[in-house]
Structures are given as structure tokens and as C-alpha cells.
Amino acid sequence: MRIRSLPIAAAAVAALALAGCSGAGSGTPAPSSTPDGLKGTVIVLAAASLTEVYGGLAAKFEKLHPGVSIIESFGGSSALAAQIVQGAPADLLATADEATMKTVADAGLAAQTPIVYATNVLTLVVPPANPAKVTEVAELANPAVKVALCDTAVPCGSAAVALLAAEKLTVTPVTLETDVKAVLTKVEVGEVDAGLVYVTDAHSAGGKVKQIAIPDAANVVNRYPIALLSGSADKAAAKAFEDFILSTTGLAALKAAGFGTP
Amino acid sequence: MRLSGPAVIIRVIAGLALALLVLPLLGILLSAPWPRLPALLVAPATLQALGLSLLTALISTALCLLLGTPLAVVLARSVSWPVVPRRLLRAAVTIPLVLPPVVGGLALLLLLGRNGILGKYLAPIGVTIPFTTGAVVIAQTFVAMPFLVFAVEGALRGADRRVELAAASLGASPLRVFRTVTVPLVAPGIAAGAVLCFARALGEFGATITFAGSYPGITRTLPIASYLASQSDLNQSIALALVLLVVSVAVLLGLRDRWLPGVRG
Q: What is the ipTM of this complex?
């Protein structure tokens, strides 16, 4: 027997794969000479909660240093740390807690002692229409309220567990997501009634979610470290971008996004 | 026996292709935490994910058989249709094969989610699909259906229609022809399709995590458990991947050669 459409499907898959390759590989070609002489490509792996701030800072940095192109990949901190331990090429790692950074440092893959430069706390978010009429964090224990949390494998998940324990709440979520942005998405599309995300995610989501403050949220604080990686192919440019994140411009952008200072 | 130049080149390239398919799996076998493996395999989380995966993949395969076989019949008969609807139908059946599963999951969420196009009418009568085992089954059925449809369609096209015509000319009703002639004729195709369908459903990840989420015992299937474990305990992740690999290979090997697509024995 034959499956007639497979050649077509295979060709389509190949085309998609090729498109993917060219997209990932090219980026902005670096000019050969630049005013400040700094050039190269910096690969930054950063926690999902840093998406907006790092995205904005990378664009600013590239404008200041036209010779440098920053490639950023955002995801769950644990997944990023695992990628680095598995040998993913990267110059900088920025995680959402110290525990995940430690797995990379313990593997001897950090080129410096990680620097803690920002903090974040959790908050409660609900869809704008607030279908379950949630008014405070204690209502998450109500089985009728559909809750999305991060899995404990990622920092926002361990923070959520700590926070709920501190509030003496037993919550049975309907889903445990692989990163904080996935929780935010499930709240934004209204598929769950509530979720615990970082205040910075609630901030960046704007009107797409409604934030309900947790009075004791400050008891569970995630500290955000950054580190140059020993596998860095472009140490000068990577260090320059790290300095930029830690500069007054970088810290101001973090503060504007709702991050705290350590 | 001396091989000609082109024949050698073809064999070398075929060898490379095979290496690309097989070597990564060898990587799993070589890096598997063998001493810890028994403990990891009987861990409640592993058994729970395996049980859920087998259950959902079986139900998905049954759904694919039930819904996909008639679709395959229509597709096989569509050769007599005008070109535009014929190609549209074929494209519609092919889409889940080429669509990134995460996009498929998102599409399902937008259709069947609480606020989805159809889902918003289900919510008031107390039916919510996302984050349920049913959602896992729907996601798996969505991605696995083409495997069954194309396998059965190929068998139908390869089948000798004269046998059906002969049965009809001897007075058999269309239903009787379908039941006693067509189905036995394409049974190997249906079996092959069901096996491929089951294997695809078992490995489903992207559409499931997007549409059904991830909760132990309810929606956390083996692939999702393996992915989550890869973020914290690589050994656990490899152990789970190994279970998935063993089940898939066992299912595929269970098929006789002639039932695999492309091989007529």
C-alpha cells in the first residue's frame, strides 16, 4: 500500500525546517567596523519573566553598539539551566532564582560568581472579567476555582508552593505549567479563574489580566542572578551586555517593570 | 558483487539517514541510569504517567478508527471529485501532520476552551474540556488522525474494486459489500494505520500541554512528565523516555512487515 500524501507532507516539513534554520542562523549581520569597536554575537538565556525587560534592553544595547547582535532565548529557568549543562552554546544566563543558577555553577559552567541584581514576588492574577469573582488569595483553596500554577520544577512553582504554605492554603490546581508565561497565558485566555505569577508578569500583561495583591507576598522573594558562562565564545561583548543590564539604565528598566532591588 | 558508483552513493546517504534516526535513540540507551532504573520505573509518578498515556492513546486510537475510517473512504472516493474540493479535503486531512502541535493545541483551546467558539456554549451546561483527560484524548486524536486516514485510504486505493463489484453483482447490499468484502480487503491497512496512530498519540506533547495542561494523573502524560523531569532530574527524564521508547518500538515491531506502510508482502 502507498500513502500518497507523504511526499507532499515531507516536502512541507522540509520547507518548514529550512525556514527555521535560516531564521535562527542569520540574525542581523554585524558590520565589520563600528564606532566603539565592540562587535560579535551574544547569546543570552533568560528566565521567561525577564522577556520584556531583556528584550527592550537588548534593542537599546544593539543601538549603542551596532557591531553587536544579541540573541535572546526565554524559557523556564530550569530548562535553560539544563540546556547549558547539556552543552548549549550561550554567553550569559539569567535565571529567576538562585537554586537553578547553582546547578550551572556547580557544574563548573559559570565564568564568575553569579551576581544578584533584582528580586521578584508573586501576585494573584485573574481574567479581566474575573469569572470566579476571586477577591483574595485564600479563595484559591476553593475547589470550584480553577487555578494554574507553575510546576515545582521551575522557580515560580517553588515560590508558589512556599507562598501557599505560608498562607496555610491547600490548593489543587488544574494545571502545573512549565514556565510563568504559560500560567499567564492560561489566565489571559480565561481558561482558568486564577493563577500565581510574578508581579512583573502582571505588570507586563497590562489590561489583559486583573491583579489582586497578596498582602504577605513579600515573604517569598525570588532573587534573580546573572552570570557569564565559561563556554562564552564572545566574552568581551557578553561582559559589555552584562554591564549594561547592571548599569543605571538596566536597573531603571527593571524597576519600571516592577522588579525589586536585592 | 560490485556496486556501481551511484549505488554506493545511495547506500552511503541511506546510512547517514539511518544514523540520524537511530543514533539519538542510542544516546538514550547509553546514558540511561541503569542501576537506578528499576526504582525510577516503578516510581508512582512513572506508573501514573504510563497508565494515563496508555489509556488516552488507546481511546484516541479507537476514536481515530471510528471517525477516520469513513473519512478515508470518502478521501479514496474523492478521485472523481472536481480538483478544488478534492485538494481542499486532502489538505485538511494533512494539516495536523505539518502544523506544529503547539499551534494545534492553541487552535483546540480557541475552539473548545471555556471562552472558545464552541466551548462558550458548553460551559453554561457544565461541560468544560480543557485540563481534563478528555482534552488529552481530543489533542491526541487531532494529531494522530491523519496517520490512520492515509493508511486506510492507501489500502482502499490499492484494493481491487472488481471484487466489490462482483459481490454487488451477486446481489450483496452496499453495507454487506463494505462489511464482508471491503473491510477484510483493507484490514491490514486499518491495522497499520491504527498502530501508527497509537504510536503518534502516545508521543503527543505540544497540543496536549497547550490544550490540556499538565497535572499528575489527569493530564500529565509520559512525554510531558519526561519533559518536566528533564528540567530537574535528567536521569528521571531518561527513564521516562526509555519507557516511551520501549512501548513504541514494541508496538511497531508487533506489526508484521506487510502491515507497515510501503511494504507489501
A: 0.73
